[in-house]
Amino acid sequence: MISLSSELESLRPLLGEARTNALLAHDRREVFSLYPELRICAWGGAMLLATAAGVVLTNNLERIGPVALALMMGVAALACYAFVWWRRKRASLVDDFVLLLGALLVSADVAFVESQFHLFGDAWYRHFLILAVAHGVGAYVFHSRTLLSLAITALAGWLGLRGIFDSGGPADYAMRAFSCAALVLMARFANRREEFHGTYEHFVAMLALLGGITLTLDDTYWSGACVLTMLLAAAIVGWGFRTRREPFVLYAFLCGVLAFDIFFARLFRGDIAIFFLLVVSTIGAIVALFVLHARFKEGRA
Amino acid sequence: MNAADERARLLRARLSEDGLLTPEIAARLETPWRTNGVLVQIVFFALTCVAMGAFYGLCNVLSVPGEGIVTGVLAIAVAEYLIHAKRWWATGVEIALWVGGLFSFISELPSNGTPEAMLVLGAACAIAGRRVRNPIAGAVAAIFVMTWAEKRLDLGVLAALLMALAAIFLLLRTWQRPTTEWLLIAIAIVLPVAGWFHADAIWRNVTILLYAAFAAIAFALAMRKRHHAFFFAALIACAIAAFELARTVAGPEELKIAVAGAALLGLAFVATRILKDKTSGFVSTRTRYHDTLETLVTITAAPSPAPSAPQPASGGNFGGAGASGNL
To answer: Does residue B300 belong to the interface with chain A, where contact is any CB pair within 8 Å?
Structure first.
């Protein structure tokens, strides 16, 4: 076990008596938080219960019947929401995961109802819109970023970002990703809850980059798409610097490098050129990222 | 990086996380090394692996003789240059160069498919991990040794649990280097999972007993010594034992999954309630130095100098006494 007591003692004049004593108490494990363990237990429990619900729907369709099963799932989901609402004044870490379980049960139930009763016919994907609205409302009622993520994911599903190119090739898929990014961006500007800004912004960045990278696979628009992706990546890196959030910088930079490589790999043919390009561009990317990271740390300091 | 630098880096990171890193303290904990956080290390590791793979491929298509040797020598030379000349440490680049370099050497060795190849790969990871003091490389080396034990002796599960148990007991010692502690934590947590992949159905009852015993030992030590690694090792081993036990019990699959899920959620709920108002010993709230600090400052109301660095917004919006909220 690591003990930093000696270093903390040496910092006592700088930290002050009370702070040093508090830090030492922590170092000696006189206060020991089980928060991470309990969180993992609660998350694991919620995931297992959601899985069990899925297996119930699959294995008991003929024995119980679709109406009873759908009702059962609905009641279970409602019970989860009611439990969290009832305990909202004294919420603990478990409540977040009960809420997540409720949302997953709602998703499973809506999908099950659609698969059994075909309420939307050929436009079956519209059930994603119901889920997006339901989870979106839930997110604002319960102040939950997890539900907001589920809502945006359902919105993306409604817009056709489901499988890979299941509708009309890379260009179509990219347009859907860009549309989704634009919708989420609008929601970000309309949003008044500050704790949701980050979630919206990450989704906007990722959806826009997904659209850009997907478009580079199109044989007609690939060159423009590579340039567009690099521009998007540069803008997101700039945003990451401005808002002091490094994950934006990291994934946008990687997408920019990927677009750069795709551009030149499509331009030059032959294994030697491609391997050479990869070596040079990746080493360049490492150096550039190191510089960016150093600047980021300087800015933070 | 020596032990003092490693410890200074760890303390600096913890104090920075809690907004207690004033310029004076930062200057005291300054080290000459350029290091990265875990996320950035992963990105650099991946990029370096891509560059090395491309270089190996380039040598291959150019028909350079001994491309593995060329790549290996170059990679290790660059890694050592970065460590000695540029003072790069735990950036993600050096470990990728060292592991990739040694694996490139190994690619030149004749292969006859014997299990001892696992020991060679394990040795490469161990050497690389030892050189740059990377706990993940060390844990991967232990996995290779366990795989050898499985292939050669059919004792993968036993080897995995013995190594994990050894790591747990070694964790009871006070270590000077944080990297040594992290290596032991990685082995204690990863090896039981890796060993499980080699568990044979005919030995199911023995597997359940072994994992249950491991979980009991880890849990007993966790309660006594208060270390997250012990709790997580116990949790993982217990989950594996329960999964294997469920396979021996007849009954609907969904019922077994639901019972396990309800048990976990219930356990978290009950433990949270029991520990709700506690501010010392085991607590269920998220505590870091900052929260502990608030607790003691609140209780003792002792005068203390205000930190010159501003407290970050992530320090919580309400609460205190080990219960900061909205973190």
So the answer is: yes
- Domain end, chosen from A119, A139, A159, is at A139
Measured CA angle at A185 (ends A181, A188), to 5 deg: 140
Instruction: Quick: pLDDT tens for B217-274.
Output: 999 999 999 999 999 999 999 999 999 999 999 888 999 999 999 999 999 999 999 9
Identify the burial level of A221 via C-beta atoms within 10 angstroms of its C-beta, where 0-12 means exposed, 13-18 middle and 19 or more buried.
middle
Do A27 and A89 reside in the same domain of the chain?
A: no
Beta bridge partners of A33: B283
Residues of chain A with Cβ-Cβ distance to B264 below 8 Å are 41-42, 44-45, 48
Q: Does A86 lie at the interface with B, CB-CB under 8 angstroms? A: no
Question: What's the gap in Å between the CA of A45 and the closest CA on chain B?
Answer: 4
Which domain range does residue A26 map to?
A: 1-32
- Interface with chain B: mutation pick from A6, A8, A10, A14, highest number of B CBs within 10 Å: A14
With respect to residue A120, please indicate whether it lies within any of the assigned structural domains: yes
Give the ipTM: 0.85
Report d(CA B204, CA A234) in Å as an integer.
54
Interchain CB distance below 8 Å, B181 and A2: yes
Same domain for A117 and A66: yes
pLDDT tens-place string over residues B164-213: 999 999 999 999 999 999 999 999 999 999 999 999 888 899 999 999 99
Q: Are residues A25 and A71 in the same domain?
A: no
| B38–A contact, CB cutoff 8 A | no
Residue in the structure block whose two tokens are 């630098």: B5
Would A205 be classed as within a structural domain?
no
Q: How far A106 CA lies from chain B's nearest CA (Å)?
A: 17
- Among B2, B14, B22, B40, the strongest candidate for a mutation testing the A interface, having the largest count of A CBs within 10 A, is B40
SS3 B216: helix
pTM score, whole prediction:
0.84
- Separation of alpha carbons A189 and A200, rounded Å: 9
Q: Would you say residue A144 lies in a domain?
A: no
Same domain, A3 and A79: no
Residues A125 and A45 in one domain: yes
Is A53 among the domain residues?
Answer: yes
> Number of folded domains in chain A?
2
**Torsion angles phi and psi, residue A85, rounded to 5:** -65, -40
Name the residue facing B28 among A11, A53, A257 (closest C-beta): A11
Residues A62 and A100 in one domain: yes
The interface residues of chain B toward chain A in range 187-216, judged by CB-CB distance below 8 A, are: none
- Contacts by B267-274, CB closer than 8 A, 24 or more apart: B267/A41, B267/A45, B268/A38, B268/A39, B268/A41, B268/A42, B268/A45, B268/A93, B268/A94, B268/A97, B269/A42, B269/A92, B269/A94, B271/A34, B271/A38, B271/A41, B272/A38, B272/A92, B272/A93, B272/A94, B273/A92
Chain B segment 233-272 residues within 8 A of A by beta carbon are 235, 239, 252-255, 257-258, 260-269, 271-272
Does A88 share its domain with A65?
Answer: yes
**Cβ separation B181–A31 shorter than 8 A:** no
Are A15 and A54 part of one and the same domain? no
